[in-house]
Design goal:
The complex is a heterodimer of chains A (261) and B (246). With 261 residues, chain A is mainly alpha-helical. Chain A has helices at residues 2-37, 45-57, 60-92, 94-107, 116-123, 128-151, 155-163, 168-203, 211-220, 225-250, 253-256. Chain A is built from eleven helices and no strands. Helix content of chain B is 32%, strand content 27%. Chain B has seven helices and ten strands. Classes of the chains: A mainly alpha (261), B alpha/beta (246). The A-B interface holds A 156-157, 159-160, 162-166, 174-175, 178-179, 181, 253-258, 261 and B 55, 57, 74-77, 79-81, 83, 85-87, 89-92, 100-101, 103, 130-132, 150.
Chain lengths: 261, 246
């Protein structure tokens, strides 16, 4: 028992320690390079930390983070509300699949960044533009993922439901939706990552808040590269956190079956 | 005994590149109320297709199926199919699986009923477990319990135990016989395991190779509990194997 516990901690330690060592090395190389090259513009890691602390103290950092997250949440939830029923419908009804799938397959590979001019044309430079871009980035992959999830439900489960003679509502609530839930969660995880990429790009174009805005603004307002890098690091950390949250969903017992033991 | 299921001259074929492949041809049989009928046939003879037709999941090209004198139109909860690969929903607990088909009673009554049948198949204590936490043999028990909780008049069993190892297979057969002692159902079993058929059934039909029809019928007049090593059981087994060309 004691041995097992030890090896568990040893494993955990390896999982955390090894990446920490790599991170430490990257920071060290960065620091040494900046100091050696005597760069006036490129900041040292410590300058990045003090720059970030400045923003924390005057409260602007929190503001930028919340407005970026709020835009992602709005666009993402909107996409979920549209994509989920549409995906179920297309997945269940073959005629709908044949009719709409080509359209989605064409729209899906268009980078959300390519939509920026249209977003500005339609929605101006307010909050709506990035929300629209995140919606566009999320909705097509989610539709396709949901529909393919419905398609891959094994016949034996549908047959069993048919055998028990359950109502349509129950069929969807207890069989079809739980059966595609694992696919939907995977779709959400992938999509949320893309949405986070897109929001930062979208905010770089004429807005007054958000982490993307912070990057462009810091550069324009006097080459504050310490803040540029601070924003980049924060974007990375929040991305990691979002991924972590969706991974928690994959741990739910009612979806574990799909991901193997 | 009354006739429970009458299969009247059914035919079924599938379209392939080389024309129609006849799977079932001119097959008739009668299943009596409360009877345990086993159908034995070689692999790929169309056993599963026949089962799907009788259980109502597929329509025959010709002929008709009558259950209790009424033409069969589709599957319903009066006859539950237990298939080889199992269909216990992996996203529900054992208890939720058993409660799934129940209707018209309160949730707590459903839960009580579910727990009663979970105990009956020897899975007391696993009500809240998810299928991926159970072994193959336990899953089979859940599947059987989920069928029994519906109080079906007919159980359709399509090679139910063939995915289990020999020991578990034997144990499940004994369990099934014990349960059928408690609650009499009409059972149609399809299997390629002659010994299984001799162990369980009141009557055994042997199918011919594709396009399949009934080649021979054997009455099993051995009282339960049956000893498979007894001379009569051995004799019957050999007679069936001879029909199958072995």
């Amino acid at each position: 028992m004691k041995n097992q516990k030890k090896s568990f901690f040893a494993r955990k330690r390896g999982k955390i320690l090894a990446p920490m060592v790599v991170l430490g090395l990257v920071i060290a190389v960065w620091w040494i390079t900046v100091v050696q090259s005597e760069s006036v513009i490129f900041p040292t890691p410590w300058q990045v930390v003090t720059g970030a602390m400045e923003l924390v103290e005057d409260g602007t950092l929190l503001e930028h983070i919340t407005s970026s997250l709020a835009r992602v949440a709005a666009g993402f939830l909107l996409a979920l509300v549209v994509a989920f029923p549409l995906g179920l419908w297309i997945g269940r009804v073959d005629a709908a699949y044949v009719t709409f799938n080509p359209l989605f397959q064409i729209l899906r590979p268009i980078s959300p960044i390519a939509w920026i001019p249209l977003a500005i044309l339609w929605f101006g430079v307010g909050n709506m533009s990035p929300v629209f871009l995140i919606f566009i980035a999320s909705v097509f992959p989610m539709i396709v993922q949901t529909a393919s999830g419905v398609h891959t439900i094994e016949r034996r489960y549908l047959r069993a439901a048919e055998n028990f003679g359950v109502s349509r509502v129950k069929l969807y609530r207890k069989v079809i939706i739980p059966a595609v839930l694992p696919e939907i969660i995977v779709g959400m995880r992938i999509t949320l990552g893309v949405a986070w990429l897109v929001v930062v790009a979208a905010e770089m174009i004429a807005l007054r808040s958000g982490l993307g805005f912070l990057i462009m603004d810091s550069r324009n307002a006097g080459n504050r590269y310490d803040l540029v890098i601070a924003a980049m690091v924060i974007i990375g950390l929040i991305g990691l956190m979002l991924d972590g949250i969706t991974r928690l969903l994959e741990k739910m017992k009612s979806v574990r079956w799909r991901y193997g033991r | 005994m009354e006739d429970k299921i009458v299969v009247d001259n059914i035919k079924k074929g599938f379209a392939t590149d080389k024309g129609t492949l006849d799977v079932v041809s001119d097959l008739s049989l009668t299943l009596r109320d409360g009877e345990f009928l086993a159908i034995v046939g070689p692999s790929g003879c169309g056993k599963s297709t026949l089962m799907k037709i009788i259980a109502g999941f597929e329509m025959p090209d010709e002929g008709a199926i009558k259950v209790d004198g009424l033409a069969r139109k589709g599957p319903n909860s009066k006859g539950i199919l237990i298939s080889q690969h199992g269909s216990v929903f992996p996203w529900m607990t054992v208890q939720e699986n058993l409660m799934f088909g129940l209707d018209g009673i309160t949730e707590s009554e459903k839960a009580d009923l579910a727990d009663h049948y979970t105990a009956m198949v020897g899975l007391k204590g696993f009500e809240k477990s998810y299928p991926h936490e159970l072994s193959g043999g336990m899953l089979k028990r859940v599947e059987i319990a989920r069928a029994l909780v519906m109080k079906p008049e007919i159980l359709y069993m399509d090679e139910p135990f063939s995915a289990l190892d020999a020991l578990m297979n034997l144990r499940m057969r004994t369990e099934l016989l014990r349960i059928l002692e408690e609650e009499r159902h009409t059972v149609l079993l399809i299997t390629h395991d002659v010994e299984e058929a001799v162990h369980l059934a009141d009557r055994i039909m042997v199918l011919s190779p594709r396009p399949t029809k009934i080649q021979a019928v054997f009455e099993v007049n051995i009282p339960h509990p049956r000893k498979l090593s007894s001379p009569e059981a051995q004799e019957l087994k050999e007679a069936i194997l001879r029909e199958l060309g072995l």
